[in-house]
Amino acid sequence: MTQLAMQENSSSSRKRILKISILAISIYSTLYGCARADDGIEFNTDILDVKDKSNIDLSRFSKGNYIMPGDYSFKIRVNQNELEEQPIPVYVSDTDSKQTLACFKPEIVQQMGFKEEFLSQFPLWHKNQCVDITSLKGVDIRPDMGENTLNVNVPQAYLEYTSDNWVPTSMWDNGVPGLLADYSVDVTSRKNNDQSGSDKTISGNGTMGANLGAWRLRGDWQANYENNADGTDSGQKEWTWNRVYLYRAIPSMGAKLTLGEDYLNSDLFDSFSFIGASLVSDDNMLPPNLRGYAPEVTGVAKTNAKVIISQQGRIIYQSQVAAGPFRIQDLNSAVSGTLDVRVEEQDGSNQQYKVNTASVPYLTRPGSVRYKLYGGKPLGTEHSVEGQDFASSEMSWGINNGWSLYGGIVASKDYRATAIGVGRDLLALGALALDVTRSNAELDTVNRQGQSYRLSYSKRFDETDSQVTFAGYRFSEKNFMSFNDFLNYMSTDDAFQQGKEMYTISFSQQLKKLGLSAYLNYSHQTYWNAPAEDRYSVSLSRNFDIGRWKNINMSLTAYRNEFSQGTDDGAYLSMSVPWGDSGTVSYNMTSGGGSNSNRLGYFDHLDNGDNYQMAVGASEHEANVSGYYDHMGNEGEIIGNLDYQQSEYNSLGMTLRGGITATPKGVALHRVNGMGGTRVMVDTGAASDIPVQGFGSSTQTNYFGKAVITDVSNYTKNNLSIDINSLPKNAEAHGSVEQATLTEGAIGYRKFDVISGEKAMAIIRLADGSFPPFGASVRNAADQEVGIVNDDGQTYLSGLHSGEKMNVQWEGEMQCVITIPDKISGLDQNGNLLLPCGH
């Protein structure tokens, strides 16, 4: 009806609009005896401007909440939470032959989030196949046929805990079966001025996987190819499967089960790789405000550079970054322990440092228990099994609102370590945890026993707008051995680096009145048998205005890395000024590695989401030029960069990052967030180039009407939508928002009701020369309503394709079929299609 008003401006069209508007008013306003929503409704057809008042079909509007019996596919919306679309039959009520009811089978009711005590109270009907949820007082079901949705209104007292962005475990979606392959590939070509050829490097990492039900199979890989101009390492190739594993969520236990190759991610013990099994309580299954944190990695790139983050040789993240400070915040929250960071600069230099991801461990809600169970055999290089069978367990118990008790053990035939600790929520003073670990290692000639003590602290100071993200101190006795130390000793029978003391702190401060932000990170590690290591970094940033220039930013980042090999100092000073609608002019100075450089650059965002950066500068009296371009395509992301350093080198680099997801519903290339992570395949039917949006990004459906959105969260309500303001002219969306709450690694599937094709006014005529009744429905092969018959068979149709057949329905049944002609053009004097309706 609204489409007609938008498309027709002639006098006759306005009359048609008036008639259909009157029909709508009569359906919803002119009724008799409407005591209940499911009572029969009688329409006063006398007020309709219709020539033949005897040829009107309003049967589908004659009873509140009435649906014709049959098999349907509905979305279910329980209050404001949606379940995925699924088949739901509609039957005649057992007690009222004039009433129809949607049949909710027991497995569907289990997904609605009712408390266990109420699930057993529902009576059954229709040969005990269907559950009557309306037997609970206040439960109401209202169909919305326009959005193909059943709205189930339930008093909150009957439901499990919910929040705006979290739903009960019964509503979690395991997704559809499918295959996936995500990748990130870096290509670099670098030519030094004293070389006749170029050094070429291709490196990459990614994840391949398969989903079936709640199970996820994953294989993480990394590869490298080098071809140097001087012949060294020429043509060297390397492909490694880092990890092959199988996992699934176990919502009833709030835990994740993993089989295969895994890493011991512990809050108490050092990490190592093993093959076996683990069962770990997953904080991501908790409401968002009760979850832990994901680590972040910061640093400064002197040039366009590649950042590689790894753990025990396994690459978990790599990407090209532009010159300047960088902050990587999209690491998986499951990552814990010490991370190795390598910054490979285009000038051939490298930065290497470690980041400790530890947080205050095991502060647990009152009455709750968190746990981790591991067992198997440790792994060495190239997946070789080394060492003795081991088992490890740890847990934390929330004693009350303030105290948590935690502890754990890791043991093998010749090694045992036991830890016990206590955590205290100090409320206004922060959170504190203290624990002690005792190890006992049976070596070849001696028994080593020792202890390690750790103190951890975290605090948010609201009154000063500052935060100690993590502060910790650890002291280990000389004879203390971690299990990782024990494994290294047993495999090499050699001396190992014995940790002694470690300090670490992360601190941030906001001074809003001055527009100043400060961030400090410090770590200090000493050893019993090796030199100490230190890493400092500090960042200061301030926003201010100068006259008509607004939102100017000035920042300073300085760092120092002290290792046994020497000291690496550096600083980065930058100033940026907004320019034009979306551009930024910047100046920066970099100092490090015994050299200084100055650069003047320009950065801009394009309307299509791409961004680029250009810069010129000088270093040690030599000019340099660089460029950086990031293209966010629908099928993947392409990052390109170039660097030229006078008298030294020139280089080109490119990153290709993306993935492919295949399900029984279709296949699509797409961008990726986390390798092998959760995603949703969006289906818009036959409509292509439909703009769809996730949490923070947008894409378009491909030629087959499919797109994959990867910026979705595990166990959290995600909203997916169609950008109706950017729809192609030949497309219409009936319902533009979908919800999905997915388990980890799931491939969700959501279908939008989109009609695409030509639009036209038509006259539908029956074989005997009469017309379908006023209010009859025209539906396409996908059972989408594409038009409603008006007076004298006049119908505004959308989604037309040459040669397509459409059904015309009234009295609840398909009555005849129309065929769209090969050439969609006006056939009568008013420019209307003449469509005979037959069988």
From TrEMBL:
Instruction: Report the membrane topology from the UniProt record.
Output: Multi-pass membrane protein
One GO term describing the cellular component: cell outer membrane
Q: Where are the transmembrane segments?
A: none
- Where's it found, cell-wise? Cell outer membrane
Q: What is its main location?
A: membrane
Gene3D superfamilies from the UniProt entry? 2.60.40.2070, 2.60.40.3110, 3.10.20.410, Outer membrane usher protein FimD, plug domain (2.60.40.2610)
Q: GO terms for biological process? A: pilus assembly
**Single Gene Ontology MF annotation:** fimbrial usher porin activity
**What stretch or stretches form a coiled coil here?**
none
Q: Which residues form the PapC-like C-terminal domain?
A: 764-819
Q: Per its UniProt record, what SUPFAM superfamilies does this chain match?
A: FimD N-terminal domain-like
* UniProtKB keywords: Cell outer membrane, Fimbrium biogenesis, Membrane, Signal, Transmembrane, Transmembrane beta strand, Transport
The PapC N-terminal domain sits at 42-185
Family classification? Belongs to the fimbrial export usher family.
Identification of the protein by name: Outer membrane usher protein
